[in-house]
Design brief:
This protein has 388 residues and is α/β, with parallel strands linked by helices. Helices cover 39% and strands 14% of the residues.
Length: 388
């Protein structure tokens, strides 16, 4: 990867600038009637978080929208960008300074490490493994070794960095698995249409696929895998800048408060997202929206009794992941989890008034459609689509 051509200076992203990442990792910008990048203010100017999915119209980022609605970010100038659907864009943009925080899967994070990007994981969202394999009804398996000789559909070729370690950790010879890049957002539709034998999926997406009449059965990572899931990464150098570090603490506190709010009142958090994205609200509706968010809360919360708080890294889980990907050749040199993951921001991020957040959540007046839902019943059927 040629790093000499990278854009070195930080600039905010105008919403009317379309950013592209080339295969070599270069960032280019095409102005769509915009005046271009605006001047930087310290310590960040507008702080930009970039999605790994190429879209923001999902429920995955509910802590941000709930926190923003509740005012938990205070006077911080924050922005969310969808980014391109290229699976590695979320780390490339942070590396070159065109975004400030990315949300990669561990596999994509390993791509960044392998390619010399000086990034660090500072807030581990996915305490449980969110990833799963979808199968057409009646074709699912709890023994992933049966996927040897079969074809797995992916939305992006970069997702192989997710599936390879997951399969290998379950005893699969990954050299015997074929992948087909079936495109975003069409890879699930391709599976339903008879292509491939399985497709990568994740918690939250399962409910969204039902809304699209994609009714599958799943091998679920949350039930069967000990690997970590997506995490927030920043440039490692930013942690050495006192002003930026203080900003990151405040910013992540907003996310932690949003996570706590969603845990206390999942339906209210869904409403916050639906207000932001009316089309998503129309497509999902209250019940599937709540189902999706409950799937994700299970992933994000993990076993909180054993965690330091929202976002804390389980270093043993991360070390197991890095050892696995080194074993299969996804990275060429061993990686120590403590060198690329840190919990130094977790204490400050979780230093908020939990009683106030609970009061905010409890005091939220739900709309009629959400108020009518039986959340306990939804929870009781959260894993009905798992392979029996």
């Amino acid at each position: 990867m040629t790093r000499g051509n990278y854009i070195g200076s930080k600039a905010g992203i105008s919403r009317r600038i379309f950013l592209q990442v080339t295969g070599a990792g270069l960032v280019t910008a095409t102005a769509l009637g915009a005046s271009g990048f605006r001047a930087q203010a310290e310590p960040y100017g507008k702080f930009t978080w970039i999605s790994p999915r190429g879209t923001l119209e999902v429920l995955d980022d509910y802590p941000y929208w709930a926190a923003k609605k509740a005012g938990y970010f205070g006077d911080l100038d924050t922005d969310m960008q969808p980014g391109p659907s290229d699976g590695t864009a979320t780390v490339k943009f942070v590396d070159v300074g065109q975004a400030d925080m990315g949300f990669p899967s561990p596999g994509v994070f390993s791509f960044a490490i392998q390619n010399g990007m000086k990034l660090k994981s500072v807030f581990h969202m996915g305490a449980r493994d969110t990833f799963s394999f979808a199968f057409r009804k009646g074709e699912g398996t709890n023994d992933l070794k049966t996927l040897e000789g079969k074809t797995i559909l992916l939305g992006s070729a970069a997702w192989q960095s997710i599936t390879d370690p997951l399969l290998a950790s379950q005893g699969v010879d990954i050299k015997k698995v074929k992948y087909v890049e079936a495109g975003w957002p069409t890879w699930g539709t391709a599976l339903a249409g008879g292509q491939g034998d399985a497709a990568l999926s994740w918690e939250g997406l399962r409910a969204e696929w039902i809304a699209k009449n994609l009714d599958f059965e799943y091998w679920l990572g949350v039930q069967n895998s000990k690997l970590p899931a997506n995490t927030f990464v920043v440039r490692a150098a930013d942690l050495g800048d006192p002003d930026r570090k203080a900003f990151l603490e405040k910013y992540l506190r907003g996310w932690a408060m949003g996570l706590e709010f969603g845990y206390q009142n999942p339906r209210a958090a869904v409403e916050a997202v639906f207000e932001q994205f009316p089309t998503l609200a129309k497509n999902l509706g209250p019940e599937l929206g709540t189902t999706s968010i409950l799937q994700q809360i299970n992933v994000f919360r993990g076993d909180m009794d054993k965690r330091e708080g929202w976002g804390s890294h389980d270093m043993a889980s991360w070390q197991g992941f890095f050892d696995q990907i080194h074993k299969i050749g996804q990275i060429t040199s061993p990686v120590k989890a403590e060198d690329v993951c840190t919990n130094e921001l977790i204490g400050p991020a979780n230093d908020f008034d939990k009683a106030k957040v609970k009061a905010d959540a409890d005091g939220y007046k739900l709309s009629e459609g959400f108020a009518a839902l039986d959340v306990d019943n939804i929870k009781a059927h959260l894993f009905d689509s798992a392979v029996k």
